[in-house]
Structure formats: C-alpha cells, structure tokens
Amino acid sequence: MASPQPQPATPSSSDNTAALKRITAEWGWPGRTLVGAEAAEAAWLLVQHADGDPDFQAHALDLLDDAVYLGEAEPRHFAHLTDRTRIAQGQPQLYGTQYRNDEQGLRPHTVAATATASRHQTNPHGPDNAVRGLIGHAVAD
User: What is the enclosing helix (H) or strand (E) of 119?
Assistant: First the structure.
C-alpha cells in the first residue's frame, strides 16, 4: 500500500480571521460589491465562528450593520451575529438563531422578551424590507 501523499498546507481559521481583520481595517465589511456574494458569505462565516475573538466579532457586527443597511450584506447574517455576540456577553439573543444541545436536547438559547428594533427593522427602504429580512429568516433557520 502506498503511503499517503503529503497535502498542501491550508490556512487555519485563525489565519483566515487575521486576514479578515486586515481586510476590514482597510476596506470595511467585505460586501457583495467589493468581493462578490460567495466571498461575502465566507467572511460572515469566519466572523460568526471567531468565538475566540469576541472583540473582533463585536467590531465586525458594527461593520456588518452598516453593510446590511447599504444592501451589501444579508440581513440574516446580521441577525445571526447579533445573537452570537449577545450570548457571548451573557445576554439573551434577539432573533432566536442560536441553539444549544445539552441534557434537555437541542433548544434555542434564551430569547429576549422584547427586542430593541434595529434600523433594519424600522427602515421601510432597508434590505428585504427589514422585518421580513431579519425576523422572517431567523424563524426559518
């Protein structure tokens, strides 16, 4: 049996997060116009799973907020990252996008009784007419 061929090194998620930090420092949120839909999705996934760097997640959330308002990012990304950062801060989530699997099974983390409306929910001209874009997708996840 032949020995396995060495595989080329692939960047680690920390390397990718470091690269995303450099990109956001220079360009802001990498939205659809700047990097295309697929790369914009990848950027969100990187920051969504950068739990070891909550300061960067919070900074990215601010950038993502502006990008969603401008139609450069998905409102569902804003909802997911909002919930993720709130849970990390010990606060209840707003949109119900984050779940845990414990001795009681798969269930959502605590959801706030009332959510403070973001500009995406209150701006009738915002992406996806705001409420449908944020709340509607969060419920479907």
Answer: helix 119-122
Q: Tell me: the pLDDT tens digits for 60-106?
A: 999 999 999 999 999 999 999 999 999 999 999 999 999 999 999 99
CA angle 36/83/14 to nearest 5° reads 55
Identity of residue 78:
F
Contacts (Cβ under 8 Å, ≥6 apart) of 131:
121
* pTM for the predicted model, two decimal places: 0.73
Q: Which of 40, 41, 43 is nearest to 13 (CA)?
A: 43
Between CA 36 and CA 49 the distance in angstroms is 20
